[in-house]
Amino acid sequence: MKHVEVGPEGAHLGYVELEGRGDVPPLVYLHGLGSCSPIYFARSAAEPVLAGRRVLMIDFLGFGMSDRPLSFGYTLVDHADAIARGLDRLGVAGADVIGHSMGGGVATLLADRRPDLVGRLVLAEPSLHPSPRPFVEPYTEDAFVEHGFALELSEVGTTWAATMRLADPVAMYRSEHALGADMPVLDGVLRALAMPRAVVEGDRSGWLRDDPDLRAAGIPVYVVTDAGHTMMLDNPTGFAHAVAQALAGMEACVA
What we know:
By secondary structure, the protein is of the alpha/beta class. About 40% of the residues lie in helices and about 15% in strands. It has a single domain (about 1-135, about 185-255), classed as 3-Layer(aba) Sandwich (Rossmann fold), CATH 3.40.50. It has ten helices and eight strands. InterPro entries: AB_hydrolase_1, AB_hydrolase_fold, Carboxylesterase_BioH.
């Protein structure tokens, strides 16, 4: 585990780096709500179809192995800007960015706000629209920290809880609210981006492959078999191949 300072309060992003070739863009992985990038992505990143490239698996502030600054807002824009500061400090530009769920929304905003940092964008069932947040909506922030977070951990299932318990309760509360009614609608932002883009979904989900707006924008959808929303855990080999196919398809489009 490595760390890079991004603030506020001298806060650091935690990340795992796999060394690789310097003649191709690095792969940057961004996790979903309550997740942890190394835990979710390490297995697929090591697949032969993706191996050999420099890889950065980054945890958002408040999650995984990153710091938990209380003064941080934890909105999607806040997360995107913190990732941008981290990539700047690491000397990364033109990366292939893979974002899952909430991380897909953050990656979309990162690409929009700092297109110099994102060469190609692969989104795994990204959060692009506001959605109900039943675990946080009944609570004030203090009440969620006091007992709402423990209730959420008890109800989300073993796999998700394994990484969610690493999250700071304040970060969970604010990040969940940022995915609720106040979330900006990002599908139009995604369609307007200039860099090559692709979407990946699990075959048990099935809500993106027939999306007419994605099709109209020329954004292909790649399907991971035997997988649901957590496709990189359900079928890491299939997820790696879908990401590799998406990147290869975008190379062909650019060429």
